[in-house]
Amino acid sequence: MDMYEIIKKKRDGNELTSEDIKYFVKNYTKGNIPDYQASALLMAIFFNKMNKAETLNLTNAMLKSGEEIDLSSINGIKVDKHSTGGVGDKTTLVLAPMVAACNLPVAKMSGRGLGHTGGTLDKLESIENFSIDLSKGEFIKNVNDIKLAVAGQTSNIAPADKKLYALRDVTATVDNISLIASSIMSKKLASGSDAIVLDVKVGSGAFMKTLEDAFELAKEMVDIGNGMNRDTMAIISDMDEPLGYAVGNALEVKEAVQTLKGHGPEDLVELCLSLGSRLLLLGKKVKNLEEGRKLLMSKIEDGSAFNKFKQFIKNQGGNVEQIENLDLLPKSNNVMHFKAKKTGYISQMNAEEIGRCALLLGAGRKTIESEIDMSAGIVLNKKKFEKIKKGEIIASLHGNDKDKLKDTLNRLEKIIKISSEKIGEKKIIYGTVDKDGIKKI
């Protein structure tokens, strides 16, 4: 097989065979194909796209390039949730214990944050001594014992994806639906769960900025998952403003705990119920979504979801006292308030820019090597379309560097807009995708 002929075939708009794709992925991962040839093929794919069969074959080849986690020794149907990334997205911290409290195994491998998006592992590590480095045996034992474990992905999962993504990043070939979908799904499928619910974000703080692109990506990923014999569904959810009120690691843990105790923000609760009811449906714990929502709410109301979270933290070495007394979580030395300069309605709250403000305060990473200030971040007091009076606090900024706090205050002036009239209505879920297709709400 010749790499020149594979490039030429895709350049001319023809379909790559399964063997073509396997040859490319296997040999590029081994270092037998130079970057300039891989870049040429990626650019040909970028312009001429891939069909369903090609996308499925690419996902499978990347999946097979490394370790596939065998979770067959975990009792029952194993479920997982994946988010395409956003600001203030502490969904896993709430959703996973809710679902586990319903006696459905949640075996989750998560990632770290980079740039304006936060990572689940970073949030959990703001809890003293919490460990995300579990051996395969520990991971399986925890899920069997308490129905829940969250760990970092091993370097052996989909190594082809890591190498290809690094190349896509520097050759302007990231923004292709097939390449994005196969990248995400190769890692999710390698993680070993039986059923997956995808949370595809759309809006200013999301990778997908338009509804059309978000639905297209969701459909592609659902088709891949079901094509690989994993029950897969997706929800398209809003990320035009941060999810919930807190943005920043310890601040988000605090909000997650409050949500598990029944005092959560409307958007976070609704998203968790929407995702969770689908996980319960795929896990055959309920007969319909409404039954799932009621079961999940009962686990918050009777305290079992919060108790499951404490059990989960303890099982992975974390300091449970910080969960029982939130004042023990990391705290910033300084808090500054951003106040409204006029009365009106919040009309704009760009999630990506707010995420960048939290990054400036130290809540995220600019590079993989960056250190995170677990206490830093932003807590919103008002969100889009809500009424605000002159002098009222819109957001509180938490940080340990006063100069960065002042700089962030100035930035928020340009990010958060107030109009004299209410100009929209809040929408949390835009639609769903399953094996039967797209359903817009």
From TrEMBL:
Any Pfam family matching the protein: Glycos_trans_3N
InterPro entries for this protein: Glycosyl_Trfase_fam3 (IPR000312), Glycosyl_Trfase_fam3_N_dom (IPR017459), Glycosyl_Trfase_fam3_N_dom_sf (IPR036320), Nuc_phospho_transferase (IPR035902), PYNP-like_C_sf (IPR036566), PYNP_C (IPR013102), Pyrmidine_PPas_bac/euk (IPR018090), Pyrmidine_PPase_CS (IPR017872)
GO biological process terms, semicolon-separated: pyrimidine nucleobase metabolic process; pyrimidine nucleoside metabolic process
Keyword Metal-binding: no
Keywords (A to Z) from UniProt: Glycosyltransferase, Transferase
Root EC class: transferase
EC number: 2.4.2.2
Catalytic activity: 2'-deoxyuridine + phosphate = 2-deoxy-alpha-D-ribose 1-phosphate + uracil; uridine + phosphate = alpha-D-ribose 1-phosphate + uracil; thymidine + phosphate = 2-deoxy-alpha-D-ribose 1-phosphate + thymine
Keyword Transferase: yes
Gene Ontology MF terms in the entry: 1,4-alpha-oligoglucan phosphorylase activity; thymidine phosphorylase activity
Any single GO CC term annotated in Swiss-Prot or TrEMBL for this entry: cytosol
Residues annotated as domain Pyrimidine nucleoside phosphorylase C-terminal: 345-419
Family label: Belongs to the thymidine/pyrimidine-nucleoside phosphorylase family.
PANTHER family xrefs: THYMIDINE PHOSPHORYLASE
Cited function: Catalyzes phosphorolysis of the pyrimidine nucleosides uridine, thymidine and 2'-deoxyuridine with the formation of the corresponding pyrimidine base and ribose-1-phosphate.
Oligomer status and interactors: Homodimer.
The protein's name in its UniProt record: Pyrimidine-nucleoside phosphorylase
Protein species of origin: Senegalia massiliensis
